[in-house]
Structure to design on (890 residues):
């Protein structure tokens, strides 16, 4: 049995309040993530995908429920420790690449390791390894402005995974990429997952991106409506996802 | 909404952001106005008897220096302002505004900023003018009652100078916006900064810059010798160029090297601040150079002030070595009798007498034929010195040795002679001594000490003068000096043809004829404070501007889990470099500058160097702390 990394119980989150109208975005979500999982969370706009991700990645605080990451309840954890958890156990990729424009790709990837006090030789070794995994070996000396969108996003992924986090959260990682760059990124993520280096939880509205995952959760109206587990090859899985989307009221693109 | 209203509301909204710009511009106006006010108001007329003309000249000179400084400062500050605004008002492109109208909007906003700064500076200037003048005189150690006075002229002149400079900058900004491409307006020239430099060119600049700076230092070591003025000029130019090249060559080169050395770079926050520095330094090298040069200039100005003050005190002391001098070309006088005469009203503290030989100028190898020349024998000077308690520490003079007696001067660009020729014979000058052996007389005559035998040889060519010197107690009180003045004058004797056989010289207490030097001193101290504050505020402005740009980066860093503590640490290190790098370079520069100044002014100014460096360090540390807080609030929190 794989190790349970994340356990989410009865998670709720609302906006508004204090006497006024309260809008509940997340309405009691339960979910378990095991080591080696590659989960996509899909749903229409406003379904609460990003809010869920923000809660899981400790960027936001829930109103109720519990998030247990590696046996630690994040809701009862202080800010300082949360910062450490973000640094040591969680990796992030965002829709905007969020690379620092004032340093080379190499330094961007090395950043979390260097700040964690890892020895420089090891930093260099791990950066090189990550860069190779994401097909960036030749671009390490370049600055972000010299890279394409896809390269930047792969760079961001390499940076997120270089610390070997327990889990990688990806928020619409292909949102700003063309189809070829999307495919390259997703392949890289899949490779990282397959080689046992990454447990991934990705939020996306794109069925194609989701088809690279092993499981897809459908979120609507703040709740998980259903879950698809991939048993077949990716293309069939993609068809299945699309069908489910239609049956849930979405449109087939 | 009209353009005027839009600019108005923009300005009102962002007035807090431009506070630093407005305050620094207002401060320039404040200082400039006060300098002008000293000249044109009648508040300082109390100093009429103290050469107000000279004081005006000193202040006018300071004003000119200050306007030049104001020009550069305004240039820099408005440039920062312009780049900030470009991106923001560039957004109006999407509202259908064209470049010309965006330019107009900028010009209007800049105009409002200028009006605010000018009005605030002038109002504060007028309000504090009395305090300013009191401070000026207090520092100059001149006691006078200052009345509050206000006249329109300094206001108009200040307005004229300020608006001429600021107006030019507004036009420059307008022009720059009109000429900018839409893309420039929206993104700014970010990509430019990160292009790697060609290694050869970087190496050439690094080596050249270091060489130029070092040769500037070497030149500064040669001041106080032959061709002082030339060396001073060369040193100033070489050091300025060297600093410029250093910030544009060697320092970026070193920072880039630090970036490439991953062993160093991957140590905790180094990766953040060294990268940020490397990214910025080429964009900001002019700022660093300006600040370093400004600070070096400030320290030199302060050194000049202290040296002048010190020299002035020495000069006064020199002049007041004796209160009365009686000079006889013929008859020998009885010193005891004169002492008795003086002591009817005063008490004589010490006295001496000696004989010197006045020689016509043609016996000297000189082009100044109107100056008085004299020689004095070693034994005479030794005895005279001993009588009044002065030291004469020279070994017995050889036949071809001499000691020149000079006097204390404010500044001398001439190097002392190594040899002197009298009546065709060359003497080695062992020393040029500015001890007041002959008191005030030493100021008006060129006097050379020779061995007794050489003196005897020259005796037939000149005429001997007997000099009787007396110092009274309380010689700093005018009424005391006056009490015996009539008696001293009564000693004068005229021969039948009207020439004086016996003459007298009465030295009144500090006659104030040179007290403009004291005012110059306090003006210099003000200049020092202003230049240092300006240097500090230039960095402050730049850091404030960077904070806006860095906000995005810190947001990313926080998102990926970097704690605020580390970000503050990194920001602190980067800002420390920004403030202390120019400081360290200034400190090195000032060692040479002050040393050169010291050798020109014949003063040991090491203490000025230490005091100024320490005061700048304290001020910069304060500004650094405020700046870091401000930066962190804007960029990190």
């Amino acid at each position: 049995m794989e190790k349970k990394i994340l356990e989410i119980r009865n998670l709720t989150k609302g906006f508004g309040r204090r006497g006024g109208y309260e809008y509940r975005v997340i309405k009691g979500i339960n979910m378990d993530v095991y080591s080696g999982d590659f989960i996509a969370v899909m749903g229409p706009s406003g379904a609460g995908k990003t809010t869920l991700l923000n809660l899981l990645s400790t960027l936001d605080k829930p109103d109720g429920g519990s998030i247990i990451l590696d046996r630690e309840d994040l809701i009862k954890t202080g800010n300082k420790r949360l910062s450490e958890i973000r640094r040591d156990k969680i990796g992030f990729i965002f829709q905007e690449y969020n690379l620092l424009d004032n340093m080379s790709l190499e330094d961007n990837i090395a950043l979390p390791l260097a700040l964690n006090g890892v020895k420089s030789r090891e930093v260099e070794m791990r950066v090189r390894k990550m860069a190779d995994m994401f097909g960036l070996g030749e671009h390490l000396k370049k600055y972000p402005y010299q890279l394409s969108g896809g390269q930047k996003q792969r760079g961001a992924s390499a940076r997120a995974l270089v610390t070997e986090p327990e889990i990688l959260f990806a928020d619409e990682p292909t949102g700003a990429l063309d189809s070829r760059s999307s495919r390259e990124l997703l392949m890289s993520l899949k490779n990282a997952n397959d080689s046992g280096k990454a447990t991934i939880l990705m939020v996306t509205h794109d069925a194609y991106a989701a088809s690279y995952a092993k499981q897809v959760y459908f979120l609507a109206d703040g709740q998980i409506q259903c879950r698809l587990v991939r048993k077949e090859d990716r293309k069939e899985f993609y068809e299945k996802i699309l069908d489910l989307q239609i049956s849930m009221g979405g449109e087939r693109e | 909404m009209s353009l005027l209203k839009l600019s108005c509301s923009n300005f009102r909204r962002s007035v807090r952001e431009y506070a630093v710009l407005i305050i620094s511009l207002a401060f320039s106006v404040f200082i400039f106005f006060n300098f002008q006010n000293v000249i044109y108001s009648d508040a300082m007329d109390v100093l009429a008897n103290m050469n107000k003309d000279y004081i005006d000249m000193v202040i006018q000179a300071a004003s000119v220096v200050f306007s030049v400084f104001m020009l550069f400062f305004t240039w820099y500050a408005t440039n920062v302002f312009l780049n900030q605004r470009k991106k923001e008002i560039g957004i109006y492109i999407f509202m259908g505004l064209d470049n010309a109208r965006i330019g107009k909007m900028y010009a209007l906003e800049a105009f409002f900023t200028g009006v605010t700064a000018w009005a605030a500076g002038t109002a504060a200037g007028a309000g504090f003018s009395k305090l300013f003048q009191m401070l000026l005189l207090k520092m100059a150690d001149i006691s006078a009652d200052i009345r509050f006075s206000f006249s329109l002229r300094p206001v108009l002149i200040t307005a004229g100078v300020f608006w001429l400079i600021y107006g030019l900058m507004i036009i420059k900004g307008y022009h720059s916006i009109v000429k900018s491409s839409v893309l420039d307006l929206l993104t700014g020239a970010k990509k430019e900064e990160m292009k790697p430099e060609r290694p050869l060119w970087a190496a050439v600049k690094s080596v050249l810059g270091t060489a130029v700076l070092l040769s500037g230092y070497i030149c500064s070591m040669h001041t106080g010798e032959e061709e002082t003025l030339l060396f001073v000029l060369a040193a100033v130019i070489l050091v300025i160029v060297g600093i410029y090249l250093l910030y544009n060559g060697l320092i970026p080169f070193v920072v880039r090297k630090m970036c490439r050395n991953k062993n160093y770079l991957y140590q905790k926050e180094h990766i953040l601040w060294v990268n940020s520095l490397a990214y910025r330094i080429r964009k900001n090298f002019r700022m660093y150079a300006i600040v370093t040069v400004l600070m070096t200039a400030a320290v030199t100005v302060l050194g000049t002030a202290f040296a002048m003050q010190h020299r002035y005190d020495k000069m006064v002391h020199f002049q007041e070595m004796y209160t009365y001098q009686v000079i006889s070309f013929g008859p020998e006088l009885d010193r005891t009798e004169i002492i008795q005469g003086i002591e009817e009203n005063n008490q004589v503290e010490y006295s001496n007498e000696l004989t010197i030989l006045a020689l016509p100028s043609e016996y000297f190898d000189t082009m100044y034929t109107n100056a008085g020349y004299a020689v004095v024998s070693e034994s005479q000077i030794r005895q005279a010195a001993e009588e009044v308690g002065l030291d004469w520490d020279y070994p017995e003079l050889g036949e071809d040795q001499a000691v020149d007696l000079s006097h204390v001067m404010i500044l001398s660009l001439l190097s002392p002679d190594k040899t002197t020729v009298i009546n065709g014979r060359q003497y080695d000058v062992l020393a040029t001594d500015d001890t007041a052996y002959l008191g005030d007389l030493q100021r008006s005559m060129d006097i050379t000490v020779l061995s007794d035998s050489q003196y005897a040889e020259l005796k037939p060519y000149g005429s001997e003068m007997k000099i009787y010197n007396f110092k009274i107690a309380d010689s700093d009180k005018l009424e005391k000096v006056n009490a015996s003045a009539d008696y001293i004058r009564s000693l004068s004797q005229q021969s039948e043809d009207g020439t004086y056989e016996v003459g007298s010289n009465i030295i009144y207490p500090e006659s104030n004829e040179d007290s403009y030097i004291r005012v110059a001193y306090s003006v210099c101290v003000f200049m020092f404070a202003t230049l240092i504050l300006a240097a500090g505020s230039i960095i402050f402005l730049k850091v404030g501007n960077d904070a806006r740009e860095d906000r995005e980066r810190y947001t990313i860093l926080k998102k990926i889990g970097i704690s605020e503590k580390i970000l503050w640490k990194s920001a602190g290190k980067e800002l420390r470099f920004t403030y202390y790098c120019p400081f360290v370079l200034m400190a090195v520069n000032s060692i040479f500058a002050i040393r050169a100044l010291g050798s020109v002014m014949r003063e040991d100014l090491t203490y000025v160097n230490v005091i100024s460096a320490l005061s700048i360090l304290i001020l910069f540390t304060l500004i650094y702390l405020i700046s870091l807080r401000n930066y962190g609030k804007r960029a990190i929190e």
Notes: Strands of chain A lie at 4-16, 22-34, 38-42, 64-69, 72-73, 90-93, 167-171, 200-203, 215-220, 223-229. Chain A is about 35% helix and 25% strand. Residues 96-158 of chain A form one domain. The longest strand of chain A covers residues 4-16.
